[in-house]
Every structure is written in structure tokens, then in C-alpha cells.
Amino acid sequence: MGQHVLLGVVSPPLFLLGLSPRMAAAIRSVPLAGWLVAPVPAQVVAALVMIVWHLPPLYDATLTHLPLHIFEHFTFIGAGLLFWWPVIGVTSATEPRPLNEGFKLLYLLIGTIPQDAVALVLQFSRVEFYDFYNHTQRLFAGITPVIDQSIAGAVLMVVGKSSSVIAAIAIFLRWARRELGQDSVLELGEGGQPS
Question: How far, rounded to the nearest angstrom, does the alpha carbon of residue 133 sit from its chain's CA centroid?
Fold first, then answer.
């Protein structure tokens, strides 16, 4: 789970932060990319990738078929890039109607719902979902597949929110600083003198 969180939640915003405005505009101009990075399709794709890959038959299949496992990882990365596109400054600036700070915060909040749904099911289930772990060697004798699954849910819940929390704080502070700056300008009259 730690690997999936790093691939789908932590690394995509870092990758997008490394793009120049010209690179972001070039990616955005690729056919179909403009539609996929819009807030609603990006949310839907990210939610589907999160939920579908954690369905027991597919998850177990990824653990026994290496090409499918690699494909799963690419979809986590791709869905993460789509999800974060409307939030990161340089990429969101390529959108015809970029989200304002309030909508970015709401977007991030909505984006945690599918992730939390998977995390809560994993954390509080008393039944192991993934048969693969019943037949594999355990690193620690006392950690049963159900306990391992609960830990995975906790990792998804806590570490999976790390990027969203950091982004939300940065967005809120930027928004507050801009609003406070505008208030200061409004309080000044002609020539920078208080009105």
C-alpha cells in the first residue's frame, strides 16, 4: 500500500510541480488530454482507478501477473497526474477556466472520498479480501492477513492524505495572503495614504 500511495498520491504532484509553463501547455494541447485533465473527468478517473484496483479479483491478479502489476502502477501514476492537474499552479494555469482557491479546496476534499472508502473498508473489515496473502510467507508471524490489511488501510488513510493536506494548506495560505493584500490596498487612499 505504501508503494501505491507513493505512486498515485505523493509523486504525481511533485512531477507536475517540475513542469515549466511551456511544458504544461504542450501536454495540455495533446488530443484528449484537455478533456481528461478537466476537474470532473480527472476526479472520476482517479476514483475508478483507486476503487477498481482494490477489488479482490483484480488485486490478487496483479500479485501473480507481473505485466498486469506494472500496468496497475502506470494507472496509479496516470490517474494521480490527472487528479493533480487542476490543483497545481503551473498546470491549472493551462485550463480555460482554472479553479479558484475555494474550488481547489473542495476538489481536494471530494478527491479523498474514494480513497477513504477503500481505506475504511480495509481498516475495519474482519475478513481478508486478498487470497494471495493467505498463501504467502509472512515477514512477521503475529501479523495475520487481516491485520496486514488493516495496516494497509491505515497507511492509505494517513499517508494518502499527506499530499492533499499539504496542498490544501498551501492553497489556503496563498488565498489568505492574496485576500489580506487586497484588503491592505483597499484601506489605502490616493498616493498610498490611509483613506
Answer: 26
How many CB atoms are located within 10 Å of the residue 5 CB?
Answer: 23
Closest CA to 125 of 151, 161, 159, 143: 151
Quote the pTM value: 0.85
> Comparing 25-34, 77-86, 123-132, which segment has the lowest mean pLDDT?
123-132
Reported as a single tens digit per residue, the pLDDT across 23-37 is 999 999 999 999 999
| Residue 77 zone, left/alpha/beta (φ > 0; ψ -120 to 50; rest) | alpha
- What is each CA distance from 31 to 26, 37, 109, 140, in whole angstroms? 11, 11, 29, 49
Measured distance CA(162)–CA(171) in Å, rounded: 14
Residues 86-104: b if buried by 16+ CB within 10 A, e if exposed:
bbbebbbebbeeebebeeb
Residue 84 burial by Cβ neighbours in a 10 Å radius (0-12, 13-18, 19+) = buried
Distance CA 62, CA 56 (A): 10
Residue 107 cell numbers, joined? 476538489
